[in-house]
Amino acid sequence: MTVTIYHNPACGTSRNTLAIIRQSGEEPEVIEYLKTPPSRQKLVELIAAMGMTPRELLREKGTPYAELGLADPKWSDDDLLDFMLAHPILINRPIVVSPLGVVLARPSEKVLDILPNPEIGAFTKEDGEVVIAGKRAG
């Protein structure tokens, strides 16, 4: 079984997601998408598999979203894809692909929905939040 994560090591949610995948017993293919962005076709496939639109995958925080005026509804899906390919930081992360599906793992425990072994036991995120079997403790 192959699990792939489109990962940004500078992102806490992405690091937590990677740790959850590894705790489940999988060693994923890690694609640092800022260094190796997906092709246009792959990005279109990922968006479709997640049941999203390109606009829904846009990341605003810490990106040139505002400077580029991407909130303007004039931009078509094709335009937004062009922006994401030109500025991969605009692609929200982490995206995880498994034979069971594709998810934008925000929050990171959403990855449990597509892991072959989601019963990972207790897991504590970097910020101290405890996650148990995909549910918050307490």
Q: What distinguishing features does this structure have?
A:
single chain; 138 residues; alpha+beta; Glutaredoxin; 4-stranded mixed beta sheet; 3-stranded antiparallel beta sheet; Arsenate reductase; EC 1.20.4.1; oxidoreductase; Thioredoxin-like_sf; arsenical resistance
> Strands of the largest sheet, in order across it?
2-1-3-4
Helix content: 25-40%
N- to C-terminal distance: 33 Å
Largest sheet: 4 strands, mixed
What low-confidence regions span 5 or more consecutive residues with pLDDT below 50?
none
Full CATH superfamily name of the largest domain = Glutaredoxin
Spatial extent as radius of gyration:
15 Å
CATH class of the largest domain: Alpha Beta
Number of helices: 4
Count of DSSP E strands? 7
Note the run of SSEs as H and E: EHEHHHEEEEE
Domains, number: 2
Q: Which structural class should the secondary elements be placed in?
A: alpha+beta
CATH second-level architecture of the largest domain: 3-Layer(aba) Sandwich
Strand content: 15-25%
Using the coordinates shown, work out and report the CATH topology of the largest domain. Glutaredoxin
* Mean pLDDT level: 93
The shape, in one word, is globular
Family: Belongs to the ArsC family.
Catalytic activity: [glutaredoxin]-dithiol + arsenate + glutathione + H(+) = glutathionyl-S-S-[glutaredoxin] + arsenite + H2O
GO molecular function: arsenate reductase (glutaredoxin) activity
EC number: 1.20.4.1
